[in-house]
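Fold this sequence, please.
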Amino acid sequence: MRKTAAFLLSAAIALSLLAACGGDAGTAAVKSVREIVADGSIAFADRYAGIVVSGESAEIKKDEDKEILEVRVAEGDMVSKGDVLFSYDTEAMQLRLEKLKLEYEMLQNKKLSAETDIPEIQNKLKWASAADQLAYNLQIQSLEADILESTYNMSIKEREIAALETAMQNADVRAPIAGRVMSVKEGGNDAGGTEAPAESTENAFITITDITTYRIKGTINEMNVGTLTEGMPVIIRSRVDGGRTWPGTLSKIDWETTVNSAANMYGFSDEMTSTTKYPFYVDIENFDGLLLGQHVYIEPDYGQTSVREGLRLPAYYVVTDQGNPFVWAQNGRGKLEKRPVSLGEEDPEDGSVQILSGLSLSDSIAFPEEGLRAGMTCVPYEDTMFVEEGSAVPEDATVPSEPEITFPEDDAFSGEPDGEGMG
């Protein structure tokens, strides 16, 4: 009895699945024309994963030769450009300056003494015996060497004195940009200079970030460096709404900073098989609708968002049968049919064709995969992407594959993107 009941239950489930899939006609995955157009998939521009980050950052380093008298900001403070961040101890610098001047004076006296002694020895050399002339010549050579050494050391002291006098006049270190103080390192550091690259915060004494503006950060690897150049226009595309875009300009590719290398195709990573990736930044003027930390797509601007007359569809969706173009479309009963369309101009640059009649944004169409037949039951493309564990896709279901595209390695990709955005 139990075996019989289990068999009947299995049969009922199988029949219900068969009915849901449209019987013998099978199923076909369809996608809204509106979504196809909004996805921006007409133009096969390389896409890069990006993230919205705060604007410009500045890092201020402590001079290793100076002592800090007072730090006037704390982490979290808002500062304006030109505000004093910290001040060096001018008293310590004054002591250092007096020491340098004393050392310079000693060198100067040593030089003057040598210059005075040389003529006297030369005069003695004239009346000296042959045995004493060698000793006098050695004294003269030694004094000339002292003069050269003193002259060289005096030039070094002069530069140190000039630099210290300038530093004393600029004892206050000011903020190079407006923003929020993100960090203040206790005790400073031992690195010289005033600013560091945006990716290197390890040696910074104070870090300031402009939180009033946004920019987009992405990464590019060594395999596709030729696809992006500084100054080129790009498009920022929302990952939630493919039709929402923002124009931008690629402002910087940071070749001096590297990020974690990607593993090779087998999942292993080593310096011989992995690729080096570099961060790049995009400036945008209008960041309405963007949130800090939001993940987006970055793609070169080839005019794919420009508004053109009529409905434009990726040309690979259109099938030509003996000169009669058609698309596989869902009819009003949820079944697949051959829908004749009238075509306009084609654009070889972005691979699109103008649809004059026969199709609208509200229609749904299938990718012209081999095996499609009129009468198939149409199912949303998204539903074919997720299958519950343990379930099976019906053998007669036709799921479209994306057009064959050569994908750049790692971050850049064409067509329909997938995967998580950058962290």
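Helices lie at 2-20, 33-38, 90-127, 130-169. The CA atoms of residues 387 and 393 lie 7 Å apart.
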